[in-house]
Design goal:
There is one protein chain. The chain is mostly helical. The longest helix is centred in the N-terminal third of the chain and has 27 residues. The chain starts with a helix and ends with a helix.
Length: about 210
């Protein structure tokens, strides 16, 4: 085993420990020393890999978000239609939030203060843009094969990702009155159909339809 692989294993071990400690104690209540104890290493060893508690937390978050993105893309690639792909995109995120609720709640609470000043700001932006580019490509392909109407894929992608983030945040905040029983399916139906009532046909159209029935 090479020195590089040993170092990488140690880094991942520290991130695993950080995830456990932050989920259990919260961001404010946790310390680098707590993470070191959980990982079974010296506090100084943690600082060899991460400069601060903030960087340690965000590194664990970035790793989780990378795993989430890879899982979502894999599930999207398994299905053919855009509707199924959006359903997979939403479902993977909602299932992930259910399994990692404590960890993600810390992220939601600290997002505003940590994101803008973090050294990992660029990494978080890169992950977000990669996810959006993948969804945008699927929207563009669906338009080319006439599965959906011609539409600007950029704003559609932003709407899909905003919906996913909003549903995740609603769940983490515990706002049950704003949660649909089948969240992913509800989200896709909302995107696909909207909330407007179908337009009533004009009188001439109605007469033509009646005539065709006779």
């Amino acid at each position: 085993m090479t020195d590089q692989s040993v170092s990488e294993r140690k880094r991942h071990g520290i991130l695993d420990a950080a995830r456990t400690v932050f989920s259990r104690q919260g961001y404010a209540g946790a310390s680098v020393e707590d993470v070191a104890d959980q990982a079974g290493v010296a506090k100084g060893t943690v600082y060899l890999y991460f400069k601060s508690k903030e960087e340690l937390y965000l590194a664990a978050l970035v790793r989780d978000l990378e795993n989430l993105a890879n899982k979502a893309r894999s599930e999207m690639d398994r299905v053919a239609s855009l509707r199924e792909k959006i359903l997979a995109f939403l479902r993977v995120r909602l299932e992930y939030s259910r399994a990692n609720e404590d960890f993600l709640r810390i992220y939601l609470a600290e997002y505003g203060s940590m994101f803008v000043k973090s050294s990992l700001h660029g990494e978080l932006c890169r992950l977000a843009r990669e996810n959006m580019r993948h969804v945008k490509h699927e929207v563009e392909q669906a338009a080319l094969r006439r599965e959906i109407r011609p539409i600007d894929a950029g704003p559609v992608t932003a709407a899909i990702t905003s919906l996913a983030r909003g549903m995740l945040e609603t769940r983490l905040l515990g706002w049950k009155e704003f949660q649909a029983p089948q969240e992913a399916e509800f989200g896709v139906d909302l995107l696909w159909r909207g909330i407007g009532r179908p337009a009533k046909p004009s009188a001439p159209q109605s007469r033509r339809r009646e005539a065709l029935k006779k």
